[in-house]
């Protein structure tokens, strides 16, 4: 396990909002006086350092002094699972490289948020997945999930797989609820996820139309997420103190 405190951020799938939630969480944690680092160990899709890549969005939203090389360990231009993109590029993703960089980052800050890629079982190579990387890091896992019909099953399956890999699913964050698209399940999903997945739901970040600014992301997290619970979990829930 990497010493230090942090969360591994996974999702019930790709495009569910991991990068947006990671940025919003980091900004709200900073608001509580914490030094927060972020890492996107493996990203695929887009040119290196293009503004729409996860690493660059995190760097810009959080105004990070770290270079892209410190935030992103492996980048592949093809928008496919990192394991496949790496295969096409003839590159082997090495966990030692990621763990070393993460250890260095964790030593400089109070909290690190590590954004996975896609969902929990996305391949990173022929014989390993995001789940294996998260298990090596050993930090509690946050599940980002969509807020509508289907989310109970997706979230509970993800929580089950996280436990099966020996990790702790710490909390669920719903993301992207558009008021006009609320379905009949929306009001009940929090309770049902907590019942079935047995993971606390830390809130539901609404869909923010218009430009996603630093201020709006932070405000949304402070208003809609249980930031005291999240920070309290980190402060009280780690065995390495
Ligand atoms: N709460 C939100 N409000 C507005 N746009 C969002 C929100 N969550 C996600 N998005 C947008 O949806 C897309 C997917 O989100 P992203 O965070 O990149 O997902 P992931 O990291 O899980 O692939 C991005 O274009 C992002 O800007
Ligand atoms: Mg992302």
TrEMBL record:
Ligase is among the record's keywords: yes
Cofactors: Mg(2+)
Catalysed reactions, as listed in the record: (7R,8S)-7,8-diammoniononanoate + CO2 + ATP = (4R,5S)-dethiobiotin + ADP + phosphate + 3 H(+)
SUPFAM superfamilies referenced in this protein's UniProt entry, alphabetically: P-loop containing nucleoside triphosphate hydrolases
UniProt cross-references to InterPro entries, sorted A to Z: DTB_synth_BioD, P-loop_NTPase
Keyword Ubl conjugation: no
Assigned EC number: 6.3.3.3
Gene3D superfamilies assigned: P-loop containing nucleotide triphosphate hydrolases
One Gene Ontology term of the molecular function aspect: dethiobiotin synthase activity
Residues that bind substrate: 44
Active site (UniProt): 40
Enzyme class, UniProt record, top EC level: ligase
Binding residues for ATP: 15-20, 54, 115-118, 206-208, 211
Classification via Pfam families: AAA_26
Residue positions binding Mg(2+): 19, 54, 115
Record keywords, A-Z: ATP-binding, Biotin biosynthesis, Cytoplasm, Ligase, Magnesium, Metal-binding, Nucleotide-binding
Pathway linked to the protein: Cofactor biosynthesis; biotin biosynthesis; biotin from 7,8-diaminononanoate: step 1/2
Subcellular location: Cytoplasm
Assembly and binders: Homodimer.
UniProt xrefs under HAMAP family: BioD (MF_00336)
Family label: Belongs to the dethiobiotin synthetase family.
Role summary: Catalyzes a mechanistically unusual reaction, the ATP-dependent insertion of CO2 between the N7 and N8 nitrogen atoms of 7,8-diaminopelargonic acid (DAPA, also called 7,8-diammoniononanoate) to form a ureido ring.
Name of this protein: ATP-dependent dethiobiotin synthetase BioD
Organism: Laceyella putida
Name of the coding gene: bioD
